[in-house]
Amino acid sequence: MSSTVERIENARLIRESAAFVVSADRLRKVRAARYQIPGFDQGDWRAFADLGWFGLRLPESRGGTGFGATELCALAEQLGSGLVSGPVLSAIATAPLAPDEWVDRVVGGEAVVIPAWQEERGIFGEPPRTHLCAGRLSGEKRYVPMAAGADAFLVTTRDGLAFVARDAPGLELSTDLLQDGSHFGTLRFVDAPAMAVPGDFGGVREEITLATAAYLLGTMRKAFALAADYLATREQFGRPIGSFQSLQHRMCDLHIQIELTRASVRRAAGVLDDDSTAEQRQLAVSRAKARASDAAMLVTRQAIQLHGAIGYTDEYDAGLYLRKALVLANVHGSAIQHRTRFARLSGLGATR
Amino acid sequence: MIMDRRQQAAGDAALSDAEFRSAVREWIAANYPLDVRNPPRRLRFADARPWYSKLAERGWLAPRWPLEQGGLGLSIVKQLILIEEQEAFGAARINDMGVVMIGPLLIRFGTDQQRARFLPSILSGDHRWCQGYSEPNAGSDLASLRTEAVRDGDDWVINGQKIWTTRGGDANWMFGLFRTSATPKKQDGISFILVPMGLPGVQVRPILDISGDDELCQVFFDDVRVPATNLVGEVDQGWAIANALLGLERVSLGLPKYSAYSLSRLAELMEVTGADQDPAIRDRYVQLRFDLDDHIALYQSFVDELKETGVIGPGASILKIHQTELYQRITEMMLAVAGEDAGRLMPMAEDAGLFPAGQFFVALPTTIYGGSSEVQRNIVATRVLGLPR
User: Fold this and answer.
1) 3-state class (DSSP) for residue A247
2) What is the distance between the alpha carbons of residues B360 and B377, in angstroms, rounded to a whole number?
3) Tell me, what's the ipTM?
4) Which of the residues B249, B268, B325, B332 is marked catalytic?
5) Is the Cβ pair A259, B298 closer than 8 Å?
6) Nearest CB to A349; choose among B277, B301, B381
7) What pLDDT shows up at residue A26?
8) Highest mean pLDDT among A39-43, A345-349, B198-202
9) B249 is catalytic
10) Model confidence pLDDT, tens digit, residues A309-343
11) Are B161 and B133 in contact (CB under 8 A)?
12) What is the mean pLDDT of chain A?
């Protein structure tokens, strides 16, 4: 395991290597892929693979870089500031669970493997009912992000993890479009041929949740920067509107929420990278995701308000950030769901 | 004596921050006078003096002063560790105006004579300092202050009034800002002058505050004559001098300890009242808990940055804003959870530490003193975020 200092240095390098995804051209790509199926650029996916992103969580012995949650979050933050779509983070976090014969293709960007683990609204409910029996998978998975772009799914079942190819007979996929231009898939399995794979999805789920918080951090920072630029240049009453105290104070409050999110995400990444218990991880991740969800909604919504009418147009980019926040704030657990989990795990209000 | 100092300085400087912290913790536990642990309000100097002297003897009263001025020359991070550990133990807050404010100011801007005269008296506790900045018509707009000092021969003659002087009645010296010129730009005509509180014409009147305490004072000056040598720096240059040292205050008012203590009281209150069985109240509590935990993480990231830069910038204002406002939100929730017991003049019967109204009133002025939340937000907006003025 790397030391904290090494991780921070790795994170810096990843930020730099990912900087190109936030280039001016990026939002044009984001707009082009909106409301399309599969909704992300296959060329991009290869480019991400060339940067080594899909091996980020794999040990070097399996062709990866052996990086941890700190590095994953650094990447997620950059992706969030560029609104990069596609199930990149899920794919990275899931790669260590892919069967050996698929790993090379995953790392090389030739195969997209997406986890499918949710069966109902809300993520802290009942264990899965989907079952795997004699190599046959039956059940239903919902809210699978960008499912139409997958080549295979890693599916949680009451009998452990299952791996199923997208084109397996007995697998039916339907999609629902989302506000940010991406989609959820619903997967119905009727005796679909699948392979049992070892491993536990619980830790990966926490990692994806935290990476989503980090993505939201990047998204809100970018929306904030857009608003700050606008306040410095837009003039009304003969002055730049950023000189008005009510707007200055609001910007200060948004800045505080962003800095709290950054500190919270960094802390949680440290907990995941340390030798922590499952409960410590869940507590830290819930804290970070609750903060990021609330702060991202606040900041991206205020970015529209601070722009006035122009912010409400589809042509202007502020709306892209709000739509992204609206979707991601509520997947992998909303703020209120995470606070409820935290209260339960920390024994608050337990019968005495 | 100076040899001992040198050894103490070398020893403390050689320790890592973590080792230093545990050494401090151990030493406080072994040396703190237990009869004044966790005092409900700030102690008068006479009651705090034994602890003040202990700290001075160990070199930890003024740890960051240079060795030749009686300090240990330690880093700002080690100074923060000393503050944090004293707070964590429940040590009384000593009158630190001398060691934190005027001492460093004289070290940086004073004359050799002033340093020789004043610094040893700060360390010995013979001089107790108060700060004379605010006036009835100069609060957030401090530069509009009007208490004037007029040169007359070898003296300054002072007339006017200061207000909100913390522990003014306990101090025998004041450092203050006084109007020495009427200039078009009001910041330009202000000088920094040291005033003995015992002089004829100085009158101190305590102000009874909303919580029933009287540590704040008004100080009146009626033809008070101060020797010209009590001027610090150049005439009319006091504003820049006073502003050079505000960083540490922002960080120390951003310490998580106040909110942490009140949140632990809120949790206890929820248990005592059974409010912890209500999911809506639990959700509000966890929001506050996340605010505290994330504040601690934010505070830590500032300290980490400080280790690299050694300078406290205007960015530290967000620590003060967030901590004080969180502290208030916690105490407001205590009032809401306590129901009828919120209105009690004395602590609740169940536990002397459960005193919702008392805690509420302690939190109430924190967003006003040390630069109000509104002024801090102005600072962040213009100096951190670069918004137009």
Assistant:
1) helix
2) 23
3) 0.90
4) B249
5) yes
6) B277
7) 87
8) B198-202
9) yes
10) 999 999 999 999 999 999 999 999 999 999 999 99
11) no
12) 93
